[in-house]
Specification:
- The chain is mainly α and 96 residues long.
- Helix 1 runs antiparallel to helix 2.
- It is elongated.
- It starts with 10 loop residues before the first helix and ends in a 9-residue tail after the last helix.
Length: 96
């Protein structure tokens, strides 16, 4: 009756995600560095990219935390229900 937990991400998936993130960050950095504009425009774009990255990490953390708290509450509720069902005896006479 218990719901199986999700398998954690594999090492290969983590490596692929980290590599993809590194390549995309490097590509943006090279693009901003070689953009034919003034230095302050490059600095603004670099700060904007860093802000977008930190916002993405924050959003991912919030979503993960919300999902974990929901799963934890669900497991606690499931454990309580299983305990009640295990202790229930349908043939026991009610006490008066």
């Amino acid at each position: 009756m218990t719901k199986p937990t999700a398998a954690p991400a594999t090492g290969a998936f983590f490596a692929q995600s980290a590599t993809s993130f590194g390549i995309s960050l490097a590509a943006v950095a090279v693009g901003v560095a070689y953009l034919p504009v003034d230095g302050w425009v490059r600095a603004f774009l670099a700060i904007a990219v860093l802000y977008a990255i930190t916002s993405a990490f924050t959003l991912a953390k919030v979503v993960r935390d919300r999902q974990e708290s929901t799963a934890l509450m669900s497991r606690v509720d499931q454990a309580r229900l299983e305990k009640l069902l295990a202790e229930h005896d349908p043939y026991r006479e009610p006490a008066l």
